Amino acid sequence: MIGSVLLALVPIGLLIALGAVLRRVGFPGATFWPQAERLSYYVLLPSLFVHGLATAHLEGVPVLALVAVLVASTCTVAAALVAARERLGFQGAAFTSVFQGGVRFNNYVGVSAAIGVFGTQGIALAAVANAAIVPTVNILCVLVFARFGTGGRPGAAGLARQLALNPLVLACLGGILLQASGLGVPPGLEPVLRALGQASLPLGLLCVGAALDLSTARTWMRPVLVSSAVKFLAMPLATVLACRALGLHGPAALTALIFQALPTASSSYIMARQLGGDAPLMAGIVAVQTILAGLAIPLVLMVLQGFAT
Question: Which residue range is the domain that position 232 belongs to?
Fold first, then answer.
């Protein structure tokens, strides 16, 4: 199990490093990266979410209990992080990066780990985990950006508009509706969405690497440590407590723990760039958490999996 997680982390780190090298040598040019970020945010990531949620096979999975555990633990940690913002000393856009670092997760690592541990059953478990957490974290992050981002503080109507027009939220809702309706993705459209979704991971990680500015690494230290403590300590603990409170056990509980101990996603950086967050800080958090995950995830699983299952 731990080996599956570590193997899933290797290509992520290499793609981030490649993005940093490409930006440093000036290839394919400085104007490429902002457009690549927009393509990821408006086309590739939505395709990934629609396809993954609409095509999930959920037979034999305790859907309601697993969803309840994941949503409850995510919302609990998110609320605690917002409540502690002033005490932690993070203001404005910097807080949006800490928040995303604490609550978002890397789908690629989670799916790879679940399949590596549980085989075919892991595909269904990972699909439910994505269906629960992806819409939840995207709605929470849009709310946090609206309140603390540099784009200004909208009123109730403006906030509702941001949620209603956010491409990631719309993609999640669309995928869930297609799944619930039983229609699935139309045959001619399915391979297109799958291909676009598969392209979202490498391009997103290249953009993260291109945005890294190691000259400001010292200023990352505190926000990186706080977001990583939330991600690798608070979130797994909240998940274990939710499993015990809601009676979730076995492979489903272990899947919940795996997903809630993952490093933050490359889409965090794309979202920070598009919605007025601290994008350079977010790139640093993504890179550092990816490295820390190689040590943190095995420790979390060794210490907590007995309590969750």
Answer: 2-308
Query: How far apart (Å, rounded) are the C-alpha atoms in residues 106 and 194?
Result: 18
Q: What is the pLDDT of residues 214-256, one digit of tens each?
A: 666 666 788 999 999 999 999 999 999 999 999 998 889 989 9
User: How far lies 104's CA from each of 31, 130, 136, 234, 252, in Å?
Assistant: 28, 11, 10, 13, 19
Which of the four pLDDT bands, split at 50, 70 and 90, describes residue 28?
very high
CATH, residue 63: 1.20.1530.20
pLDDT digits (tens, 9 = 90+) for 270-298: 788 878 888 888 888 888 888 888 788 88
Kindly report the pTM of this predicted structure: 0.77
- Domains identified in the chain, total number: 1
Query: What whole-number distance in Å separates Cα of residue 97 and Cα of residue 33?
Result: 20
User: Cα–Cα–Cα angle for 115, 54, 245, nearest 5°?
Assistant: 60
